Amino acid sequence: MRLIVISVFILISLICLPEALNAQDEQSRSSQQIGDDITFPALPYYSYGSGLGLTSPDSTFRLNIRFRMQNRASFTSIDQEEAVEATVRRLRLRFDGFVGDPRFLYAIQLSFAPGDVGELSDGDNINIIRDAVMFYQPNRNWNLGFGQTKLPGNRQRVNSSGALQLTDRSINNARFTIDRDFGFFIYYLREDESQFSYNIKTALSTGNGRNWTRDPGLGLAYTGRIELFPLGNFHNNGMLFEGDQYREESPKILLGATFHYNQNAQRIRGQTGSELFEERDIESFFADAMLKYSGWAFQGAYMSRKSDDPLTVNPADTHQLRRVETGDGYDLQMSYLLLSGIEFIARYSVQNPGKHEDQPVHRIRQQSAGVTKYIWEHALKLQAELTRNRFYAADPGSVASSYYLRFQVEIGI
After folding, report:
1. pTM of the model
2. For the chain, what is the domain count?
3. How far apart are CA 305 and CA 352, in angstroms?
4. How remote is the C-alpha of 43 from its chain's centroid?
5. Which domain CATH number covers 302?
6. From 194, 213, 266, 276, which residue has the greatest number of CB atoms within 10 Å?
């Protein structure tokens, strides 16, 4: 019986083989052949540029994959105590693209370095999700978003940490920034490189920051930003990174301002920081400017945060206080990029923390100088930075200082 089955199988195979060969020959002729390479229409299409891109044959979805890594080594001196630190400062993985229609966009960004994830405490979830947002773009001007991403704050904060000239943002960004949040985003963009342009960006969000899983509260945060380009937009979206990478042939200027109101905020910096003992209303204001021309780049920024009643008291222990981190500050930054890809950067920052009886520091000055070697723009670069901080107390004669010397390598696609 087995012999009969095998014989029938061989007979059917011999009958069908010519048809299969003919079908294969037709498929080969229908495929596009260029030299020794054959492009099969049924396979996804790949692209290379900003990351690795995949597009389905019927163009119903697109996936772009990128990663970014910052490795750094630092020598620090604080109150004459010296230390050497070497760490992976940032490790990010990003996915973006569209689904169903190019107008339906998504962006996902995950972080894995300890400094990005943060310390896990009781009741907290692991904090690896940075961005998880979708946008609908009905046309080239409107963007409607829902999910978690950066609020439209000051320029240096909105720019990626991988697009910075120095190894980190300023002390004012660290203290006064508005960070990622979950909510609705509406952007109206009118950008043109050859004429006056402007952007209007708004957001309605929870006000609690990314991945907040504790008491949701009843407050909301309201954010509005306007950006003006008096001489037209920067070449190739140059406002999204620091330094004049493309050596603008004519001067380009950005003027921006943001107002943010966080109602019933639960954290000392709004979206970040320790949890307050009571909810507080917080107002933040940002103004910034950028100029680029022929390798030169200038940036200036002012930031402030205020609250009518910043102090909160632990009802279980009246000696334990937490307050909204109020105050203001400004940054000035300039740079010049040589044709060889070497850039020299200087930054000066002044911070004025809110003056309260329990606030020991009333003024901070930060001076930074750096050298960056761009191998492949901001995606592959070597950075060296020397920064000095001086802390001034209420007593004019009381001054403390610290400094760090840092080397960092940035790589990504």
Report:
1. 0.84
2. 1
3. 11
4. 33
5. 2.40.160.10
6. 266
